Amino acid sequence: MHALMNINAGSIEKYIQSVNSMPILSFEEEQKLTKSWHIEQDTNSAKMLVMSHLRVVVSIARQYFGYGIAHADLIQEGNIGLMKAVRKFDPSFNVRLVTYATHWIKAEIHDYILKNWRMVKIATTKAQRKLFFKLRSLLPKDTALNLEHIDKIAKRLDVKHHEVIEMQARLIQSDTSLDEKHLHEDGENSLINTLSDERDEPCQALITQQQNQQYEKIHKALENLKNKDERMHDIIHKRWLNLNEKKLPFKYFADKWKISIERVSQLEKIAIKYIKEQVYKLSN
């Protein structure tokens, strides 16, 4: 396993071909291996779980080409996140490993990019880190960044206007054209030719499917919560789900509902527990 996961800079294409040839596990196979690892600490089962999901790391690593980090390095760090996910994954979670592992893979890649970013100090706060990784997707397509865009992005990510402008400048400065020539074992190739079409990538499709199913369950749980207690629904919605606004303090709800701050905190904990229980029920 270590031999396959150790990528040499000149063999990235061969590595991708190798991991894409690994068989994809069925849900039943995955559950069997996960239980064997989780309960019996069978290392061979853990190895098979990791190997069958290496293609997921490759797929996710492609999303971070624009940060000036070599693809091989991104994959290596993503593989570390995958191994952490396999180690911590519990079969009772009732989700596919690919859904759970995605978070760990991205977290490891994010940390590596931040540690190796060559610019002046950036992303020192949680809000700035969110800006760093979300800005590209929020930027207008084929349109110059104007004050209206800056204002919307700043409000959505809870950062200052000048931070949006500075981050955009840094990202533009670091961008490398996909048409830039790179020297490989077989001579000169365009970097864009090394990127495969992911439209039919089975792991990516499974991630999307699993995420959509999870969103539907959470949405249903929130509907049930609203019917159960309007106050709890209000607290969860305005503190955790309203991404375009700042997280409202407990005092806001205490004043609104004429209850104590301690009661608001208690209702939030009850609501979160209720949602988790509802999602679990809907998964069975």
Shape: flat
Number of domains: 3
The largest beta-sheet arranges its strands as: 1-2
* Distance from first to last alpha carbon: 34 Å
Biggest sheet, open or closed, and with what strands and sense?
Answer: 2 strands, antiparallel
Order of helices and strands: HHHHHHHHHHEEHHHH
> What's the CATH architecture name of the largest domain?
Up-down Bundle
Explain this structure to me?
With 284 residues, the protein is mainly α. It has three domains: 1-116, Four Helix Bundle (Hemerythrin (Met), subunit A); 121-191; 202-282. Helices cover 67% and strands 3% of the residues. It has 14 helices and two strands, in the order H-H-H-H-H-H-H-H-H-H-E-E-H-H-H-H. It has helices at residues 2-5, 12-20, 27-40, 43-51, 54-61, 71-88, 97-116, 126-138, 147-157, 161-174, 202-228, 230-241, 250-257, 261-282, and strands at residues 181-184, 187-190. The chain has a two-stranded antiparallel ribbon. Helix 3 runs antiparallel to helix 4, helix 6 crosses helix 7 and helix 8 (126-138) crosses helix 10. The relative contact order is 0.08. Mean pLDDT is 75; it is low at 175-202.
List keywords for this structure.
3% strand; 284 residues; 3 domains; 14 helices; Four Helix Bundle (Hemerythrin (Met), subunit A); mainly alpha; two-stranded antiparallel ribbon
Question: How are the elements arranged and paired?
Answer:
Elements: H1 2-5, H2 12-20, H3 27-40, H4 43-51, H5 54-61, H6 71-88, H7 97-116, H8 126-138, H9 147-157, H10 161-174, E1 181-184, E2 187-190, H11 202-228, H12 230-241, H13 250-257, H14 261-282
Antiparallel strand pairs: 1-2
